Amino acid sequence: MFMRNIRILLYVGLIGCFFCQSIFVYSKAKKYSFKLIDLKCEGLVNPLGIDSRIPHFSWKLKGDGLKEGQAYYEIQVSSDSLLLMQDKADLWNSGKIKSGASVMVPYQGRPLSSRSLCYWRVRIWDFKKQVSEWSPVARFSIGLLNKSQVHGEYIGASIEGGQICAPILRKKINIETVETAFLHVNTLGYHEIYLNGKKISEAVLTPAVSHLTKRSLIVTYDVTPYLKKGENDLLIWLGQGWYKNTTYGAVYDGPLVKAELNVLRNGKWKVLTKTDNSWFGRESGYSDRGTWRALQFVGEKVDGRILPTDLSTQALNQMEWAPVVTVEVPEHIVSPQMCEVNKIHRILSPVSIKKLAKSTWLIDMGQVQTGWFEMRMPVLPIGHEVIMEYSDNLTKEGEFDRQGESDIYISGGREGECFRNKFNHHAYRYVRISNLPVKPEGEWMKSLQICGDYQQTATFECSDSDLNAIHNMIQYTMKCLTFSGYMVDCPHLERAGYGGDGNSSTMSLQTMYDVAPTFENWVQTWSDSMREGGSLPHVGPNPGAGGGGPYWCGFFVMAPWRTYVNYNDSRLIEKYYSQMKEWFKYVDKYTVDGLLKRWPDTKYRDWYLGDWLAPVGVDAGIQSSVDLVNNCFISECLGVMSKIAFTLGKKEEAEEYATRKEKLNKLIHQTFYQPNEGIYSTGSQLDMCYPMLVGVVPDDLYNTVKEKMMVVTEQKYKGHIAVGLVGVPILTEWVIRNKKVDFFYQMLKKRDYPGYLYMIDNGATATWEYWSGERSRVHNCYNGIGSWFYQAIGGIRPDEAAPGYRHVYIDPQVPNGLTWARVTKESPYGTIVVNWELKDNLMHLQLSVPAGTTAIVCVPDTAVSCKMNNKKVNIGKKIVPVEKGDYDFVFSLKIQ
Length: 896
Description:
The chain is of the alpha+beta class. It is built from 18 helices and 48 strands. About 25% of the residues lie in helices and about 30% in strands. The strands form 11 sheets. Strands 19, 20, 24, 25, 26, 27, 28, 29, 30 and 31 form a 10-stranded mixed beta sheet that branches. Helix 6 crosses helix 15 (about 725-735), helix 6 (about 500-510) crosses helix 18 (about 785-795) and helix 13 (about 685-695) runs antiparallel to helix 14 (about 700-715). The longest helix is centred in the N-terminal third of the chain and has 27 residues, at about 1-30. It starts with a helix and ends with a strand. About 50% of the residues are buried. Residues about 1-30 have low confidence and may be disordered.
């Protein structure tokens, strides 16, 4: 007993000594006052299977102790995370680099190759020589970059296994030891992966879109946590999606997959299994009912008599399986997917259930949403069919507005059956359920919102509830439209990546969300869609013809530049500059006497538009307007090409494009200006503001043209917005540059047709396709005003010379009637915050500038004095430069 007590005392004493020593060590340890967050590789978080051997790294700085931002950085990259913990970087140790760069910093270490699995971390020093702690360890892997490196064959279900349009393919695998394992999946169509009965990812409707006659995508998964020692069941559940004969001329009537499972042994990847004729398949109970041409997406039929409810090995063994078929697929590019997957981000429940007739019910989900419908079924007779139709609208009479979207569920006659979409989706607010003999309960049904797994990067709120409602509707709409690595015109009727719609809303979308990876994928589809001679379609990817004009094709020029400006991501302008030049050769082919004229329709492109879907009373189809708008757009593209060339170090080409722009502008003015009336072409808002925006209007005429446009707006259009898809972002940019905030504010405040409040007052929860509300009620026509809330009211304007918000201008424009605004913008360098409020003759402006960003605060025109953080500031130059930090400005304004 005595010895036992002695041991206890010694044990307690040792613990005490260790505790005291720990306190002493901790007290002498380095205390870090700032840290690194939001680590990304190629704009993605811990991406597996990227498409480059030279990845780019990004990080953000956070902490009050950071002095003046980053002065140096050090990056370590290793083949093993444990090596980093030992301060060993066997792939790359950058050393201490003098640089403030923290966005898209390129890898410069040992050559990487396909399947390389890498771990990295970073630390930085500030200008006071304080060093951060190392960031958390992040990882990335290089994908399969060469088609010859992809093992396996394309396989699909055979007709012996039943319907082949959404089959389950199966392979049993024996594993002696569980090791790091990656599954590379290349599908023509959609896929979901299951291992030992569990879905290995939250991803849905995977992969992203691609131009399937030119390219298909590989998605890489880490399946290590789902494997077990012994026998494993690998299931690949396929759906056709876009891979159909009616869209891309599919060579097989069902979806196809090529996949391989790799394990990492002794630092080398080994192929554990691959797709071949040793796999088995069977029908799943799902089938696709649409052609996936415009207006023909329809929906799915789910047969509960066939649908497996248990994917365990025991259950699978009791099913009948048939050998798969191998299929020869035409040669095409196979490359890694470089954008986020889709996920379910929000769930809505019904707000009302109404009986329409016997066994027919109308469900209102309260808000239009893009995604899936889910419904728990009551016990019904075997073979009983329940029909679910979808719409984004009710008619003026309150009737269900049929839009051609519907699903069918066939009962298996069991308890606990549930319908849920899997390889198709809808955009809807209302569901009409037919042939359901019992009233559905609210808890039976869910609307599952699907969008890309990107982050929202901006918030806006002000003293005007109408502006808040318009802003929120636009921000929400764009989330409904952006998924699968592109942005669509509407998610239900056409699902097309129209370049005009994209051009119209790129600045709004890229302001409000972090979608650089989305544009990486989307612009790639445009590159793959280019035809011989530089001809471009109006839709990317391009499964069929779509209407549009030069403004649609030129998305291929504008989107890469805007992605560079908004994210400091130069990959797109570097990768596609040569193809942009090819497109200009096509433009030159149809240029007559210096002006672009109509080019021919093709099988993949039709129409030749100027503006599109302007309000009633504005004839945007008059030829002179079409020609003016399109040549102004070419002028804008020439200016962008000059800036791209200059950024890429091609000074002579930059000067050539600038000279071409100047000559074109003079010709546009000579051709379309009518001096007797002081107007361009028809004198519409777009015909007047576009020449001003691109520099066509001579300096001595600018004020005349400006005042004429504003007078016409008031007298002819009664102060309303009078533009369509093309005109909305152009008018928006013009009012921002010209600080015509009251002019625009009063347009937005109109409650009658046409206007955003007219939509809201008539039940809109997303923006419409037509100002009048025809056809689609979730659409991309009029979202181009989104940037105004941030650049005008919030006053946060990016500087193209310092992209990615590395340098910004803070210049809020305050319309009469607004008393305060609170705006945030999450930039690649951190969060910019602008809060302003008017009190009597004072304007209080609170500003937060993140590390890595500098700003110029523009003094209001009516300011007579200024204090910054309670210290008087000289406002003679009308600007106040600031760096990282929090600032409290008080401007004394002249009473007017």
